[in-house]
Amino acid sequence: MTELVWEGKYKDGKKVTPVRIALPFQTIETINESAQQRQKTLDFLIAEPDAKYGNEWRNRLIWGDKKYVLPSLLPEFAGKVNLIYIDPPFNVGSDFSFKATISDNPETEEDETTQFVKQPSIIEQKAYRDTWGKGLDSYLQWFYETVLLLKELLADDGSIYVHLDWHAGHYAKAVMDEIFGYENFRNEIVWHYRTGNLAKNQFQRKHDTIFFYSKSDKINFTPIEQKEYYADVYGPNFKPSFEGRKQGKDEKGTFRMSMVDDVWDISAVFTLSNEHLPYDTQKPEALLARIIKASSSEGDLILDCFSGSGTTAIVAEKNNRRWITCDLGRFAIHTTRKRLLGIDNLKPFIVQNLGKYERQQWMIAEFDKPETRLQQERSYKHFIIELYHAKPLDGYIWLHGAKAGRMVHVGNVEAPITVDDIKATILEFWKLTGKEKAAQVNGIDFLGWDFAFDVNETAKQFAAENKVNVSFKKIPREVLEKKAVEQGDIKFYELASLSVKTKNEKNKLTITLANFIIPPDDVPNEVQGKISHWSQWIDYWAIDWNYRDDTFHNEWQSYRTKQNPKIELTATNKYEQSGKYTVLVKVIDILGNDTTKAIQVTV
Ligand SMILES: C[S@@+](CC[C@H](N)C(=O)[O-])C[C@H]1O[C@@H](n2cnc3c(N)ncnc32)[C@H](O)[C@@H]1O
């Protein structure tokens, strides 16, 4: 059979296949979980310490690159996914940038809502380079590797829909034929829409192409019927004379029911439509509904590894299907979560990532030369110190570098920086400065992948008592990407700080957000100029009223939507039992970054 060959497809005469490391997922949040179910899961995990999560099915929203997420799904889901829909990225501009909204200042009369375009982060640009860095050749290799893994995940009677357009669609068809078999090709669906386009040298480009394949000759497919008006088919004066087909009449005229064909006229998501989100590549729910209804049954499992604004998960949820969806972009995950929360009778779901495992993998690959783990750890810390433009410092346990009159501590790849780490670092700092008065240091910068929730208050207080100025900065995920590092584009941003007030009356606890300061990040100056009240930075916030050292259980939330752009700043909970509780407050800002704060209360 004819084969499409691109540069990079073969190495030493063999096809280059995808990375196959299966990393364990970490659950970072549960949403809509009842207190009883939470207790059941905790009991289950105590009884079965090797289990990764509870014994009940949870839909999954995964933040990560499909390169790691798909192989990590294989041990659990190979051959178990009933339907896959993918709408892979194509153009970095519209695939990765998004419009962030600055809401109105609640303390002024006028409505000053504005929007700005958030450019893609380095990590997103890197993903773009992976796909398009060497033009069509690298895109096809990237696509080929994706589809190979997807095929393994698909059930024997499963279906896959690949959404593309004129840019690469015809090449992708040849790749799909190679992987799924020409004989398993079912349809080339033409999705025809009407959006603005003013081409002068060719006809207007107004359709996308969706290739539909089955994994084998067994297939779960339910034909869909729709009304077909006689006037549309035969002209205005046609009088139906034949019988035997389902016919009817409504305000638009006489119709018969006919099977949906492979040309779909479905309107695109317009700015004024209710489902519209600030996500340029958002696909209409009606499109996904047709695919999901035709190619899956209730309870079936649906996968989309390029979630974007989350259309697949939304439609799967509304139609009682199970779903797994992933995206590399922080804002995509946030948009999907918010959109899901707007669904009535939403079933519980979890948010996951590969967090520390992805970083461990990176450390092993990057610093594998030194023989011992300790040396590996040291090379890793030197590397971060260098990226931070600090000078490495040897001979200390907790202090790893020095920069501009400050000491630097680098957190481990696998654990958050805790209050105990900070205390130990401060004690070592005092030993050093006590010994070397000439050192002239006046503070410590802590660089960490993650920080324990209570760091901002407890550790800062301890530091102040010990007369040390401390600052906490996040090691950005971009560090994992060689190209971003080579470009020297790594920035360490300070943690945002959140102030919260609590009021406690009998068993009723009231939490009020009091202030939120975010470091400038990559927000353009003119955007910062438009923010006159701290609450305008906040897009969403959620509370876990009884944090149990497991994962963040989202039990209450308030967030802005297009229909309702206002956000509550106060929340109340009534506790059934008095006692000591840890309350976790998680804020997500308008750029999709989150800040979490833990508060100890006695009610
Ligand atoms: C065309 S959009 C999908 C739009 C989606 N169908 C919707 O209705 O909103 C493609 C998405 O793929 C994501 N993406 C790109 N490369 C990725 C990768 N390697 N792994 C996971 N997601 C990726 C982008 O962040 C983007 O959100």
Word description of this protein:
This protein has 603 residues and is an alpha/beta fold. The protein has 3 domains: 10-224 and 260-353, Vaccinia Virus protein VP39 (Rossmann fold, 3-Layer(aba) Sandwich); 372-492, Trna Endonuclease, Chain: A, domain 1, CATH 3.40.1350; 496-602, Immunoglobulin-like (Sandwich), CATH 2.60.40.10. Helix content is 29%, strand content 29%. The protein contains 16 helices and 31 strands. The strands form 7 sheets. An 11-stranded mixed sheet has the order 14-9-10-8-5-15-16-4-17-3-27, with helices on both faces. The protein starts with 9 loop residues before the first strand and ends with a strand. The model has no long low-confidence stretch (mean pLDDT 87). Bound molecules: S-adenosylmethionine. S-adenosylmethionine (SAM) binds next to helix 2, helix 3 and strand 16. S-adenosylmethionine (SAM) is lined by residues 65-67, 87, 89, 95-96, 127, 279, 281-283, 305-306, 308-309, 311, 326-329, 332.
Q: Output the strand order for the largest sheet.
A: 14-9-10-8-5-15-16-4-17-3-27
Largest sheet, strands/sense/barrel: 11 strands, mixed
- Rounded to an integer, what's the Rg over CA atoms? 27 Å
The helical percent reads: 25-40%
What class, by secondary structure content? alpha/beta
Ligands bound, unique? S-adenosylmethionine
Q: Helical stretch count?
A: 16
**Average of pLDDT:** 87
CATH class of the largest domain: Alpha Beta
Kindly, what is the distance between the CA atoms of the first and last residues, rounded to a whole number of angstroms? Answer: 72 Å
How much strand?
Answer: 25-35%
Looking at this structure, what is the CATH superfamily of the largest domain?
A: Vaccinia Virus protein VP39
Shape, please?
A: globular
CATH topology of the largest domain: Rossmann fold
Number of domains: 3
Unreliable segments (pLDDT under 50, ≥5 consecutive)?
none
Q: Give the total of beta strands.
A: 31
Per CATH, the architecture of the largest domain is 3-Layer(aba) Sandwich
